[in-house]
Design brief:
The chain is an alpha/beta fold. The protein contains 13 helices and 9 strands. The strands form 2 sheets. It has a 6-stranded parallel sheet with strand order 2-1-3-4-8-9, sandwiched between helices. Helix 3 links the parallel strand 1 and strand 2. Helix 2 packs parallel to helix 3, helix 3 packs across helix 13 and helix 4 crosses helix 5. The chain starts with a helix and ends with a helix. The N terminus is likely disordered. Pfam families: Abhydrolase_6. This is Hydrolase. GO terms for molecular function: hydrolase activity. It comes from Bradyrhizobium japonicum.
Length: 256
C-alpha cells in the first residue's frame, strides 16, 4: 500500500510539492511547529504522505501515526506515543476513523488545535458504531462488512467508487484489494473524552464523500463550532486535494 500511495502522490501532486519546496522559509511567528497526522480505517499512514510532504517542505515537523486498528485504546496509545515525542505546540489531525482517535487523545497539553478531515467527531459516550447510523446511509457505509474473525472491511468491488472516486482507477482498485481491517472492538468502543470541547477546532468537509455523508460531516463540524472548509472531493481528498487540506492545517497551526 505504501508504494501505491506514494506513486499516487507523485503523479497527482507534483506541482503542489514544488510549491511547498519554494516556500520552505521560516514558519510564521507563534505557529505550532509540530503536526501529528492520524490515519483512518482500511488504509495506513501513507494516506497522509501527500499532505506531510507539503507541510514538511514548509518547515513543519510532521509525524505520521501508524494505527494498529485493533482497538480504540491501541490507536489512542499510538497517537499519545507520537505526541510524547513532540517538542512544543502540536496540531493533531485525524481522517475518518482517525477523528475518533484524536477526539480521545487530543486532550494532551501539547495539542494546540485539532483538525478533522472528513472525519467522525464523537461526543463523550459515542462510538463509531453509533455515529455511523447518523444521517443518510452512504454507499461506503453500506459496504462495510465483517469477516469470520470480526474484522471490518469495505467490499472491494464498492471501494473504488465509494472511497476513492477521484483517484486513478488502478490506484483505487489496488487500495480496495490491500485494505487494512478495523477490528469490530474499535468500531464499538465509545470515547470517554471529547477534546474538541477545549481546543480550537477545524473541519474539512468533503462534499462528494460517499463514506461519511457531507450533511453528517457538517453536523459534526457545527456541533464542535469548528472553522469549516469545504473541498469538492471524495473521502480520499487528503490525497487528491492535499494542498487544500494542508492549508487548513497551517491555519490551525496559528490558532490560539
Amino acid at each position: 500500500m505504501r508504494n501505491i500511495l506514494l506513486s499516487a502522490a507523485t503523479v497527482l501532486l507534483a506541482g503542489t510539492t514544488l510549491v511547498g519546496s519554494a516556500n520552505s522559509a521560516e514558519l510564521p511567528r507563534g505557529a505550532a511547529h509540530n503536526i501529528v497526522l492520524v490515519h483512518g480505517a482500511f488504509v495506513d499512514q501513507t494516506s497522509w504522505q501527500p499532505v506531510a510532504d507539503i507541510l514538511s517542505k514548509k518547515g513543519y515537523n510532521v509525524t505520521l501515526v501508524e494505527n494498529p486498528l485493533t482497538s480504540l485504546t491501541a490507536d489512542v496509545d499510538a497517537t499519545k506515543q507520537a505526541l510524547a515525542k513532540q517538542d512544543g505546540k502540536t496540531v493533531l489531525v485525524g481522517h475518518s476513523w482517525g477523528g475518533v482517535v484524536i477526539t480521545q487523545a487530543g486532550n494532551d497539553p501539547k495539542v494546540s488545535a485539532l483538525v478533522y478531515v472528513s472525519a467522525f467527531a464523537p461526543e463523550v459516550g459515542q462510538s463509531l458504531a453509533l455515529l455511523s447510523k447518523a444521517g443518510p446511509p452512504t454507499e461506503g457505509g453500506n459496504a462495510i462488512h465483517p469477516d469470520a474473525k470480526g474484522n471490518l472491511y469495505i467490499d472491494p468491488k464498492v471501494f473504488p467508487s465509494a472511497v476513492a472516486a477521484d483517484l486513478p482507477p488502478e490506484i483505487a482498485e489496488h487500495l480496495a484489494n490491500s485494505q487494512l481491517p478495523l477490528n469490530h472492538v474499535a468500531f464499538e468502543a465509545p470515547v470517554s473524552i471529547a477534546a474538541w470541547r477545549d481546543k480550537p477546532t477545524f473541519y474539512v468537509i468533503t462534499t462528494k464523500d460517499k463514506v461519511i455523508a457531507p450533511e453528517v460531516q457538517k453536523l459534526f463540524a457545527t456541533r464542535m463550532k469548528a472553522q469549516i472548509t469545504e473541498v469538492a472531493g471524495s473521502h480520499a481528498s487528503l490525497v487528491v486535494h492535499a494542498k487544500q487540506v494542508a492549508e487548513v492545517i497551517e491555519k490551525a497551526a496559528l490558532a490560539k
